[in-house]
What does this fold into?
Amino acid sequence: MCRGLDQILRPGMRVERIELRCGDLREPVQSKDLQSLEGQKFVAIRRRAKYLVFEFQNSLLLNHLGMTGSWRSHQSFDQETPEPNQKLLVTRKHDHLLIHFSNKMKIIYNDPRRFGLILPISKEEEMTHPRMKILGPEPLSAEFSGEFIFQETRASKASIKAWLMNQNHVVGVGNIYACESLFQARVRPQKQAGKITRKESDLLARVIRSVLTSAIEKGGTTFRDFRQADGGYGTYQNGLLVYNQKGKECRICHELIQHQVLAGRSTYWCKKCQR
DNA sequence: CTTATGGCCTGTCAGC
DNA sequence: TGCTGACAGGCCATAA
It folds into this structure.
């Protein structure tokens, strides 16, 4: 999503108007909270954990997609042939926020389940905001290593899967990627985090990097309505080894893939390959 | 303090 | 076909 938006948004584009249609998201947001963005130039977009960070001249807009959030763009005005061929702006159900730029480009935030978050903050707050400061290291950063996992899990009585999915420990590892990583590292999701060995920690760090890198390359995992900014689908679901594979044969040992709800989330594993 | 659970929402799918 | 219930990639308030 970040890459898709980066292709569309150009530094210097000015926000003409912010149109909030529904502020009833994870945290309520009101039009007046977003008003100061109007008139500001767009600077850049980046990602921190599962948040998109829109950087403008004087402030930031954080956006978490939750489970079903997505952005698409709309060029409502054809510069070459203005009046007669003007494209109508077509909006859809669950379009909650529209950012209108002065060059007639619009980006539209759509989120059926409204688990997403729109949060305007100042540039100074990026590191100190309660939602930001609790976040663990990026899994693709140097800070995230086998040593890190081993040290940080010593006192934990939670399952390794719950530990990995806790964004305070390491960010970006969601349910699918936790299942897939644990399979590749041959570690059972139910294993107590504090009992993970140093060797398992090293392997886990390596496979998490490779799983996430591969998923990013493939544009993510699409099941139902998760889309990229261009409306396309990711293809990571085609290579899933355990997630959503209940009752199918393990690709390594042909044992049937197990399923249970662990820490409230659907969990898949191979009882023979994973110890 | 840590960990587990239920709930937020709407849409989709399988099964009847 | 239409209905119902289960379930969904995240997170947080609350309970234990």
User: Anything to note?
Assistant: Helices of chain A lie at 2-8, 31-34, 130-133, 146-153, 160-165, 175-184, 198-217. The first strand of chain A starts at residue 15 and ends at 20. The beta strands of chain A are 15-20, 42-48, 51-56, 59-64, 70-75, 95-101, 105-110, 117-122, 258-262, 265-269.
